[in-house]
Amino acid sequence: MTDTGATQTEGRSSALPAFLWKAVKLLLTVIVTMLGLLLVTFLISHVVSVDPVLAVVGDRASKATYDKMFIEMGLDRPLYEQFWIYIQKVLSGDFGKSFLTKKYVMDDIARAFPATLELATLAIIIGTAIGVPLGIISAVKVGRPIDQFVRIIGLIGYSAPIFWLGLLGLLVFYAKLDWISGPGRIDIAYEYSITPATGMLLVDSAMQGQWEAFRNAFSHIILPASLLGYNAMAYISRMTRSFMLTELAQEYVITARVKGVPEWRIIWVHALRNAAVPLVTVIAFSYGGLLEGSVLTETVFAWPGLGLYLTNSLQVADMNAVLGGTLVIGAIFVGLNLLSDLLYSVLDPRVRRRGGKP
Amino acid sequence: MFIRARLMATAAVAAFSLSTATPIWAETPADTFIQAWTLDDMISLDPAEVFEFSASEIIGNSYEPIIGYDINDVSKIFGIVADTWTMSADGKTMSFTVKQGKKFASGNDLMADDVVFSITRAIKLDKSPAFILGQFGLTADNVDAMVKQTGDYSFDFTMDQAYAPTFLLYCLTATVSSVVDKDLVMANEVDGDFGYNWLKTNYAGSGPFVIREWRANESVVMERNDMYDGLAPVMARAIYRHIPEAATQRLLLEKGDIDVARDLLPEEIAALSTNPDVQIATGVKGTIFYLALNQKNEFLAKPEVREAMKYLVDYQAIADTIVKGKMDVHQTFLPKGFLGELDSNPYSLNVEKAKELLAAAGLPDGFTVTMDTRNTPDVTAIAQAVQQTMAQAGITIEIIPGDGGQTLEKYRARTHDIYIGNWGPDYQDPHTNATFARNPDNGDEPASKPLAWRVAWDIPEMTAKADGAVLETDGAKRAATYVELQTEHQKTSPFVIMFQETEVAALRANVKGYIIGPSFNDNTFRGVTKE
Questions:
Q1: Is the ipTM of this complex over 0.90?
Q2: Count of CB atoms situated within 10 Å of the CB of B85
Q3: Which pLDDT band, with edges at 50, 70 and 90, does A353 fall under?
Q4: Does residue B15 carry a pLDDT above 60?
Q5: A177 touches chain B (CB under 8 A)
Q6: Which end of chain A is more exposed for a tag (fewer CB within 10 A), N or C?
Q7: Mean pLDDT taken over chain B
Q8: d(CA B127, CA B133)
Q9: Minimal Cα–Cα distance from B132 to chain A, Å?
Q10: Would you place residue A14 in the very low, low, confident or very high pLDDT band (cuts 50, 70, 90)?
Q11: What is the DSSP letter of B213?
Q12: How far is CA B518 from CA B71, B336, B503, in A?
């Protein structure tokens, strides 16, 4: 953003320390958040009465085998020591191995996360693309039948169990109508034709020009993504409606109308630009929620994502996996938070100006 | 960002219309066998470590054990890798010869040094199933002397006592007794780990299928092993897909996207039984469902109470409804199909009889106890049925739900009142279930903690008898001892043994030759054809 050479000019010298200070403050917040997150997760998982050794050695193992693993997993040390060792390792970039899959946690997550990322991204696109216009329409036609209709659609999307909707969707669109492919990410015929690059099948197949595989992957992802998108849409449309209602009641809108600005321009340019600022946060957090992975959706659609991975790990108290996953999710939220802050300053000139002036 | 989103949305719509234009095929490829199963218990592909249902089955189809048995008559034992065997005069050393001409999938010859390596490796790695071989007195320190190669195709297996020969042979049928390719495994050894870190996710066997790839919580892909010396499988590929949800499995099966669904619930099985495109296959498994009554509880410690509770379960009603087609009534500790099995189910729901017994115990008004219950559908439903019938005689049961880890934790620490659970045999010898009837040390920190210890049932005489049975070399006498043990156990023990599991799978109608065996490593698809 700023060139380091600029420190030499007088005007910038005061701005840079402020910028630096802001960066340090941000970094500190991130570190404290992450540490707190880790500590809480660590403590909770040690309160749960599940024996992680059992998950590894099984119920039948001899006492000697059990004891050996108990020590190998470091469980004989005091709690604070276990935590300290873990933190030290994380700081050196070692997130440890999952006791369950016996693989490096980051390798596991690198496998599971793209599946979730692909699904969540498509879902948030669908949710936003439909939710924002619907919200605007119901704000403009407030109280009219169309507003009521959107409200009902949204209510169903928000309150119907996604598990049930998923099975119903499969029954209708997959089993009966044959419009889409069933559970799983891709048909076996294509499974080995795509070389994994990003881990996101749509992106990988498109990059390699394998359009048959792309089409197949798309026919697998479209239903779960639409359902998750529907859920997100419900929330986004309600929020859009309420932000738009606030904006449309503002004096600048009246002024614009008096000046004879066309109605579509008032809605889509004047009001929406102002409503967009808080809306970005809403969308960012919906996206964040989707990126955590949805256990139920992943179960119904046999989607090997982050939600399923973390739930499995949690059930057997697989500490390294749970902590690693928590860190990743924490990082996603912090990242999205930063991103929406950044977008704020793009969308709102006041924020931009305030940021520039100390 | 908005522009990009709009672009992607346009692309998405375009692609969707493409995907709807042509129908997606609704049949699995003719040379590929696809199963839907829950694979989340898999932790390894190393035969020295595998102890889980799913992985056992995969190892059973890709490796060869030293000994095998006829899955229709478990008493018929034959060699798979082993050719012949003779016991020494002192009954402690079994001399084996190994079949000649076998090759691993890698092309290496399978010889005696591979067998000896596989056994010593399992003992030295000391993972969960190592005790199956270790119980013959093998330890990391002595195994090199106890299991010795005597020629290119022969080796000796020495035990610390003169155990029943069948006991040893049955243990050599287990997954842990699979033969691994020594040269290949040792080529991947790192820091003296016997190739353990490599073999966890790789393959070094000689069975009908080669394990090509395992993606945790996703799939396992197997391919026909062209080096296999038995009957070559018809299927070129066999794929397991991890599908955790039963309803999803059913949809996939009905649609024809999979050949077998492995985790269907009784109501789904019932619904599918009328579908002409689907057939149901069953096989009796060794797993037994039971209640464990902790003798540390003052009420449950009374012999009359223990017997009364055996009259307070409506076995037949549960078998006919809740677990229909998945479990049969079974009231002895050895599963059907084992040496020494006893076909005897004397108990049925009899509230009057139970009340008499409770009155004799000085508890005419009953009492209250808790029951730790794993929160799976089957177990929870059985627990609720038991709770209801027990209440008819005044016994109030508070069900404490928990996941598998939580309930097991309490049971292992013997801090439960009643535990409802299941026990599956580790190998096909009856000694694996003697855990119900032996408790060498009832102290709080004994060396071994069999099931009888977990209920604090102190039985020195029965323990001596059960341990004696392992040393009985005469098969008929040995079987008679187990029958005696079960007869007494059934009447006096603090175990209410209720059911034996039947494994059910739903298959597409065109699939032939799929076999559900008594143990998980016996489930096989090597003979599968599709018409």
A1: no
A2: 18
A3: low
A4: no
A5: no
A6: N
A7: 90
A8: 11
A9: 10
A10: low
A11: E
A12: 7, 9, 9
- Residue-level pLDDT at B1: 35
Which residues make Cβ contacts (< 8 Å) with residue B528, sequence separation at least 6?
A: B33, B233, B234, B235, B238, B511, B512, B513, B514
Cβ-based contacts of A187 with chain B (< 8 Å): 24
Q: How far is B277 from chain A (nearest CA, A)?
A: 14
> β-strand B260-261 against B32-37: which pairing, if any?
parallel
Of A101, A184, A189, the CB nearest to B43: A101
Cβ of A180 under 8 Å from any chain B Cβ?
Answer: yes
**Assessment of whether the complete model's pTM goes beyond 0.90:** no
CA quadruple B457, B458, B461, B466: dihedral, nearest 10: 50
Report chain A's terminal Cα–Cα distance, integer Å.
16
Tokens of B371: 């029951």
Q: Which helix (H) or strand (E) holds B38?
A: none
Number of neighbours of residue B278 by Cβ within 10 angstroms: 20
List, in sequence order, the alpha helices (H) in chain A: 10-13, 15-47, 52-57, 63-72, 79-91, 105-140, 145-159, 162-169, 188-191, 201-207, 211-248, 251-259, 263-265, 272-291, 295-300, 306-315, 319-347, 349-356
Quick: pLDDT tens for B103-114. 999 999 999 999
Per DSSP bridges, beta strands B418-423 and B278-293 are antiparallel
Task: State residue A24's pLDDT score.
Answer: 85
Contact B447 A63 (CB under 8 A): yes
* pLDDT, tens digit (0-9, with 9 covering 90-100), for B415-432: 999 999 889 888 889 999
User: What does the alpha-carbon distance between residue A190 and residue A205 come to, in Å, rounded to a whole number?
Assistant: 10
Asked if B431 contacts B171 with a C-beta cutoff of 8 angstroms, the reply is no
Identify which of A55, A60, A218 has the shortest CB distance to residue B15.
A218
The token duo for A345 is 């300053």
List CB contacts (< 8 A) between A216 and chain B: 19, 24
Instruction: Assign A274 a pLDDT band (cuts: 50, 70, 90).
Output: confident
Residue B151's beta-bridge partner residues?
Answer: B154
Q: pLDDT by residue (tens digit) across B383-407?
A: 999 999 999 999 999 999 887 777 8
Can you tell me which residue has the tokens 């059934």? B490
b/e burial code for range B406-444 (CB count within 10 A of at least 16 → b): bbbbbbbebebbbbbbbbbbbbbbbbbbbbbbbbbeeee
Min distance B389 CA to chain A CA atoms (Å)? 30
**Interface mutation vs chain B, best among A102, A187, A316, most B CBs within 10 Å:** A102
Search chain B and give the residue with CA nearest A215: B19
Contacts A–B by Cβ distance under 8 A:
151
Distance CA B395, CA B467 (A): 35
Cross-chain CB nearest to B130 (options A65, A128, A171): A65
Provide, as residue numbers in chain B, all residues whose Cβ is less than 8 Å from the Cβ of A174.
251, 255
B53-65: per-residue pLDDT in tens? 889 999 999 999 9
What gap in Å lies between CA A65 and CA B148, rounded to an integer? 24
CA distances from A85 to A12, A35, A95, A207, B145 (A): 43, 13, 11, 42, 41
Q: What is the pLDDT of residue B12?
A: 40
What's residue A354's pLDDT? 57
Residue of A nearest to B218 (CA): A304
**Averaged pLDDT of chain A:** 82
Start-to-end Cα distance in chain B: 53
B51 contacts A218? CB cut-off 8 A: no
Interface residue A50 vs chain B (CB under 8 A):
yes
Label residue B9 by pLDDT band (50, 70, 90).
very low
| Pick from B9, B239, B255: CB nearest A182 | B255
The alpha carbon of A138 is separated from its chain's Cα centroid by a whole number of angstroms, namely: 27
- Tally helices (H) and strands (E) across chain B: 18, 19
